[in-house]
From TrEMBL:
Pfam families: Cytochrom_C. The lineage of its organism: Bacteria, Pseudomonadati, Pseudomonadota, Alphaproteobacteria, Hyphomicrobiales. This is Diacylglycerol kinase. Keywords: Heme, Iron, Kinase, Metal-binding, Transferase. One of its GO terms (molecular function) is heme binding. Residues 43-151, 193-302 form the Cytochrome c domain. It comes from Rhizobium pisi. The keyword Iron applies.
C-alpha cells in the first residue's frame, strides 16, 4: 500500500514537472536572434522620422503637458490607467542610463517586434508591440537611428503599479500565446498597393486598433470587432467605430478621410477632439500618399 502511494506521488510530481516545463517552453520570452538584425545596412533617418510620426511616439513618451520641440524629448512619465493597474510610460530618449541610448538594435528590435526587453523579460502590451510586430525590419532600424538623434533626458519613470497576479511578467507568455501574432488583422477583398500600404500603416506602426477595437476580459482584441469602436481607455465615452459600416465615418469618401487626417476637420466642418487630436497632429507629418493609403484601407476593411 505504501509503495503504491509512493508510486502515485512520484507520478504526480512527474506530471507537475512535465507540465511546468511545457508551460515555460510555451510562455518563455522568444526574442529574434541577433543575426536577424545584422546586415540591415545603414539606416535612413529621414524614413525613421516618418515612422516616428506614423507610430505616434510623442503621444505617450513625451513628458505630459509638453509642447512644441519639447515633445521631442521622450522622457516618458505618462500614467496609463487600465483595468489591470497603472502603467508608467518609460523614457526612450537616447540617454545611456535613463533611456535607450545603450541599447543595441537587436534589443530595440525585439522590444518592438517581440515584446521582449533588453533584460530578456516580457514587456507589458501597454507598449503596443502586438501592432509593431507587423513592422518591417528596415523601418525598425530606421526608427532606432532617428530616436538616437533626439535630445536626451535623465528622467526615470516610476515602476508600474499592478496588483497580483498582473505583476507576474512570466504570465505574459500565456497572454502572448493566446493573442500575439504578426499576421494581418483582417483579410481584404480589395488589396491593391495603396490599400496594402494603408494596412501596413494602420495595423503596424499606427497601431490604430489599440484604441478602436474592443477587448475581452484578458485584454486581447476581439478579432471579429476590428476597428468597430471600444470604450475610451481614458474613462469617458467611446472610441468610435471607423469601419465602413459605422455611423461616424461610414458615409465619408476616401478623400474625406484623407482630408480629416490632414486638417483635423470633418466633412461637416466639425473638428477633431479627444485623444485623436494628438494622433491627427502626428499624421500631418506623413506624406499625402500615406494619408490616402490609410483612407483606402479604412474603406476596404469589413464593416461591423
Amino acid at each position: 500500500m505504501v509503495r503504491r502511494f509512493i508510486r502515485f506521488l512520484l507520478c504526480l510530481i512527474g506530471v507537475a514537472v512535465l507540465g511546468g516545463c511545457a508551460f515555460y517552453l510555451i510562455t518563455a520570452p522568444d526574442p529574434l536572434p541577433e543575426s536577424h538584425w545584422a546586415n540591415l545596412g545603414a539606416p535612413d533617418t529621414a524614413n525613421g522620422e516618418m515612422v516616428f510620426w506614423a507610430g505616434g511616439c510623442v503621444s505617450c513618451h513625451a513628458a505630459p503637458g509638453s509642447e512644441g520641440d519639447a515633445k521631442l524629448t521622450l522622457s516618458g512619465g505618462l500614467a496609463l490607467k487600465s483595468p489591470f493597474g497603472t502603467f508608467h510610460v518609460p523614457n526612450i530618449s537616447p540617454d545611456e542610463k535613463a533611456g535607450i541610448g545603450a541599447w543595441t538594435l537587436a534589443e530595440f528590435g525585439n522590444a518592438m517586434k517581440r515584446g521582449v526587453g533588453p533584460d530578456g523579460k516580457h514587456l507589458y502590451p501597454s507598449f503596443p508591440y502586438g501592432s509593431y510586430s507587423r513592422m518591417s525590419d528596415k523601418d525598425v532600424n530606421d526608427l532606432f537611428a532617428f530616436l538616437k538623434t533626439l535630445p536626451k533626458s535623465t528622467s526615470v519613470a516610476p515602476p508600474h503599479e499592478l496588483p497580483f497576479p498582473f505583476n507576474i511578467r512570466l504570465a505574459l507568455g500565456g497572454w502572448k500565446f493566446l493573442y500575439f501574432s504578426d499576421q494581418p488583422r483582417v483579410a481584404l477583398a480589395k488589396s491593391d498597393d495603396k490599400v496594402k500600404r494603408g494596412q501596413y500603416l494602420v495595423e503596424g506602426p499606427g497601431h490604430c486598433g489599440e484604441c478602436h477595437t474592443q477587448r475581452d476580459a484578458l485584454g486581447g482584441f476581439k478579432s471579429d470587432m476590428w476597428l468597430a469602436g471600444a470604450p475610451n481607455p481614458e474613462g469617458k465615452g467611446r472610441i468610435p467605430d471607423i469601419t465602413p459600416a459605422s455611423k461616424n465615418i461610414g458615409g465619408w469618401s476616401e478623400a474625406d478621410i484623407a482630408s480629416y487626417l490632414e486638417t483635423g476637420f470633418t466633412p461637416d466642418f466639425d473638428s477633431v477632439g479627444g485623444s485623436m487630436v494628438d494622433v491627427q497632429k502626428n499624421i500631418t507629418h506623413l506624406p499625402a500618399s500615406d494619408r490616402e493609403a490609410i483612407a483606402a484601407y479604412l474603406k476596404a476593411v469589413p464593416g461591423r
